Amino acid sequence: MSRPCHPFLFLSSHLLCRSTNNNCIGRSKNTLRFCRKQLRRYCTCWTTRQRWIVPFPFSRYYYCLANTSVDDSAKKDSIEWKETATKTVSWKRQLKVASYFFLWYAFNIIYNISNKKLLNAFPFPWTVAWVQLAVGVVYVVPLWLLRIRKAPHIPMEEVRNLLPVAAAHTLGHIATVVSLGSVAISFTHVVKALEPFVNVMASALILRSVFPIPVYLSLLPVVGGVIMASVTELSFTWTGFLAAMLSNFAFTARNIFSKISMNNSQTSSSMSPANLFAVLTILSTLLLLPIALALEGPRLYPGWIAACHGSHTVAVELITWLLTSGLFFYLYNEVAFYALDSVHPITHSVGNTMKRVVIIITSLIVFKNPITYANAIGSAIAIGGVLLYSLTKYYYSQKIK
Q1: Angle between helices 72-121 and 29-42 (to 10 degrees)
Q2: How far apart are CA 297 and CA 293, in angstroms?
Q3: Nearest CA to 187 among 219, 226, 223, 150?
Q4: Which of 107, 108, 131 minimizes the C-alpha distance to 119?
Q5: pLDDT on residue 319
Q6: Cα–Cα distance, 116 to 177 (Å, whole number)
Q7: Burial level of 216, CB count in 10 A (0-12/13-18/19+)?
Q8: What confidence tens digit (pLDDT) does each residue in 234-248 have?
Q9: Over the range 294-307, which residues count as b (16 or more CB within 10 Å of their CB) and which as e?
Q10: What pLDDT score was predicted for residue 151?
């Protein structure tokens, strides 16, 4: 069996002998050993006693090394080269995964900070949420038009199947924005730590998907930690708390509708996660526009004038926060998909838990929100409970397999 080598070998092909049945014409054993070393260095699947072909489109002859044995030093050199190549590939993959997680965290932090600053100055969450979705549309559509990313082809029937998913996604996004505008960022993320609890309960009731008892018990620290943090939260408002809880139910509904849609559809299941999120963003933008105009439309202009205080600089700053929050909202969700595709689900769950810790700490530093010891302990218990739940769920899922 013959295997082609890298064309670069033609540069030294004159060193190889045109041989038949191991008869070398006019070349020494040292030269033959050197030739074997070159083949070993540039051919990836090299093993002993194989016939190697060195093709080159401008070469008159094919030079070959036929059925030659390999000495111990050659074998050792080959093994070392393979180990070096494996380490290089592993190092590059680790760097790629680390880059995804870094961007996921950084984009999420930028979104939360810019979004909170904007809502503090311009308290119109429905309008802000719609603009953030619209910025995502403006970002992704040119990628499709310029063929930087392959555009999905979805018939109208599939669009109708995705409408419930888009509606749940819209509700979850607007509820999160309302909560972030009403309470501290740290408290919103602590309450959103209850999403696994809502997800497990909804899966049992709707999808009839039941987990082992230890999985449910692992959620008790999450519930207890959120209750403790809520009772001791200095910025607590019922609007912020209920909006955060509503986002948990909405995103859980989005996950369930997505599973149902994937089972009943071939187009949505064949789409990449990034394109599926883009399609949901477009549908959510269309769904949210009339609602935002109905609820806040008449008050937008007076509210904008009051927020700007007649200053052009303030207006530019608000627009910058608005566009920044929209762009990084889309980017952090997209990078999260890439991170999920690059690592094991349990690694992604741990990373998502640590993401909330990083966001909470960063928001406390930036906005200098006061926090009590009881609130800090409750938040830590809730976040730690999410990690415990992820590990327990993974353990029993592997045990069942």
Answers
A1: 20
A2: 4
A3: 226
A4: 131
A5: 94
A6: 9
A7: middle
A8: 889 999 999 999 999
A9: eebeeeeeeeeeeb
A10: 87
What span, in angstroms and rounded, lies between the C-alpha atoms of 209 and 264?
18
Q: Which residue numbers in the chain have pLDDT < 70?
A: 1-89, 262-270, 344-346, 348, 400-401
pLDDT of residue 43: 44
Structure tokens at 261: 């849609």
Rounded CA gap, 363 and 371, in Å? 12
SS3 54: strand
pTM of the complete model beyond 0.90: no
| Residue 25 per-residue DSSP state | S
* 45 Cβ neighbours under 8 A, 6+ residues apart: 3
Per-residue pLDDT tens digits for 326-366: 999 999 998 888 887 777 666 767 788 788 888 999 998 99
Torsion of CA 138, 143, 145, 151, to 10 degrees: -110
Q: What are phi and psi of 53, to 5 degrees?
A: -110, 135
**Between vectors from CA 171 to CA 165 and to CA 174, what angle results, nearest 5°?**
135
Q: In what order do the strands lie in the sheet with 63-65?
A: 2-4, 51-54, 63-65
Does residue 344 sit in helix, strand or coil? coil
Q: Which stretch of DSSP H or E encloses residue 116?
A: helix 72-121
Geometric angle at alpha carbon 106, from 165 and 378, rounded to 5°: 75
Residues 6+ apart with CB under 8 A from 375: 228, 229, 232, 233, 234
Dihedral sign for Cα atoms in the order 28, 32, 35, 37: negative
Listed in sequence order, the residues at least 6 apart from 68 whose beta carbon sits closer than 8 Å to its beta carbon are 22, 32, 36, 49
Exposed (0-12), middle (13-18) or buried (19+): which is 368, by Cβ within 10 Å? Answer: exposed
Beta strands (DSSP E) in 81-131 are: none
Residues with Cβ within 8 Å of 65's Cβ and at least 6 positions away in sequence, in order, are 16, 19, 32, 35, 36, 39, 51, 52
